[in-house]
Design goal:
The chain has 1 helix and 41 strands. By secondary structure, the chain is mainly beta. The protein has 3 domains: about 130 residues; about 100 residues, Nucleoplasmin core domain (Jelly Rolls, Sandwich); about 110 residues, Jelly Rolls (Sandwich), CATH 2.60.120. The strands form 9 sheets. Strands 5-8-11-14-17-20-21 form a 7-stranded mixed sheet, with no helix packed on it. Strands 3-6-9-12-15-18 form a 6-stranded parallel sheet, with no helix packed on it. Strand 22 and strand 23 form a beta hairpin. About 25% of the residues are buried.
């Protein structure tokens, strides 16, 4: 726009008139009305202060610092792009209806108020959303963040049709939801994770569970059955004889652990090929929880003593003996960092109901084992499920005959049975049972 020449004292009145009309026409072109001005380009060497609403309807380029203390709306045209290339501080609400691009990786963009972005947000530098933990930051469109994203308030990613892509190494969402998301490792922290859609695990490491077990290419067999039980962690070997109960394995005293025995194999290695009898018990303090009692093993044979796994607590000891010669024992087990596995044993010395276990939470029972330690007399055993007041709900066995020197697994063909919190498993020996002859053992897991 060409400049208007000044009027000199030597100019004629007509020149004054022409120059004045040029000024009036120029001002009328610049003024939209009495309170609004219009110009294609406005250049000023002083600060620009807006006392009211400032609206940028087109493309806005800020080459240095932009400080906004009031509400600011950038772009009513959804196809426009609004760029912040320098350090930008916005202390109040920022509403962007078009694309927002923060492209200078050396700059810092800080949004201290509520940020609502209805379309694309592209961030290539470090971005902090909200020092106020009560603020809400919504990203409802396709969002790409190529560097660090830190959200100290509540974050909402609400547009299911959009794409939220995070290619940064560290993405921390530390608001009240306490959700940490990473592109390499994903750590979901909280009491319960509910997944209502399909889950695909793409990494080579598979899924690792709280008890230390894992799934890689296919689920491993559990509960003492199946093939190639990949959760096993160790095995031990021991020689047992008739002289005394021999320690086969002592569990470490480490708190928070459980030791799950999946296999206990007794090999009759008596050099005279004579029959032997196998007795095994888990020692908990002063109590011996029997697994077998004088189970016969013919000469030159071996016997797997477990049909279902058994659980040992820290510092407990597995002891065994044979009635003749020396035998070889192989025990295979897994270590679990999960105290929800439980076990208990009971020695019945009378013909009244005794509580084997009271469930402290909803539980799955994997094994209920009955052991007859008498070498000549059968024993009848009743195992019942009661409520917390000992009122019968059902039976696991009723008057079941357990032969002499026999062990009977009541859940041999069951993958586990569910029991509610507070309920009980109670065992009653037959009226003619010899004292201390019937033993019971339970193994399960609190859910």
């Amino acid at each position: 726009m060409a400049a208007i020449s000044n009027v000199a004292l030597t100019n004629t009145f007509d020149t004054w008139r022409i120059r004045s009309n040029q000024v009036f026409a120029r001002v009328n072109q610049f003024a939209a009305n009495e309170s609004a001005l219009y110009a294609n380009t406005l250049t000023a060497n002083v600060s620009f202060t807006s006392k009211g609403l400032a609206t940028l309807q087109g493309r806005a380029t800020v080459g240095t610092n932009l400080t906004v203390t009031g509400n600011t709306t950038l772009g009513v045209n959804p196809t426009s792009r609004n760029r912040f290339n320098g350090a930008t501080t916005i202390n109040n609400s920022l509403a962007v209806t078009g694309n927002l691009s923060i492209t200078n990786s050396s700059s810092v963009a800080t949004l201290n108020g509520r940020a609502t972005i209805g379309k694309y947000l592209t961030v290539t530098g470090n971005t902090t959303l909200g020092t106020n933990p009560t603020s809400v930051h919504r990203l409802s469109g396709a969002t790409t963040i190529n560097n660090k994203l830190t959200v100290t308030g509540n974050a909402s990613f609400s547009n299911t049709s959009g794409v939220f892509a995070v290619s940064a190494a560290n993405v921390n969402l530390t608001g009240t939801g306490k959700t940490l998301v990473k592109t390499a490792n994903t750590d979901v922290r909280g009491g319960t994770m509910l997944i209502t859609s399909n889950v695909a695990v793409m990494g080579t490491g598979g899924i690792k569970f709280k008890d230390g077990t894992s799934i890689t290419t296919a689920p491993s067999a559990g509960g003492g059955g199946g093939f190639f039980l990949s959760t096993l962690t160790a095995s031990v070997q021991a020689n047992v004889s008739s002289s005394a109960m021999t320690t086969v394995y002592t569990a470490p005293a480490t708190a928070g652990k459980r030791y799950i025995i999946y296999s206990l194999r007794h090999v009759n290695s008596n050099t005279a090929y004579a029959d032997v009898q196998s007795t095994a018990a888990i020692i908990r303090g002063a109590n011996a929880h029997a697994i077998t009692a004088a189970v016969p093993i013919p000469g030159a044979t071996a016997l797997e003593l477990l049909k279902k796994p058994k659980v040992m607590y820290p510092s407990e000891t597995l002891k065994m003996r044979t009635d003749a010669g020396t035998s070889k024992i192989i025990m295979t087990y897994a270590t679990a960092s999960d105290t929800t596995y439980f076990a208990n044993g009971l020695l019945l010395n009378n013909a009244v109901a005794n509580t084997l276990y009271t469930f402290t939470g909803a539980s799955v029972v994997e094994s209920v084992l009955l052991v007859n330690a008498n070498t000549s007399q059968s024993i009848q055993a009743t195992v019942e499920w009661t409520d917390s007041s000992n009122i019968n709900k059902s039976y696991l066995s009723y008057g079941l005959v357990v032969p002499p020197q026999a062990t009977v697994e009541l859940m041999e063909d069951i993958g586990g049975t569910y029991f509610p919190s507070g309920d009980k498993i109670r065992v009653t020996a037959g009226a003619s049972t010899p004292a201390n002859a019937l033993r019971a053992h339970i193994v399960g897991k609190t859910l």
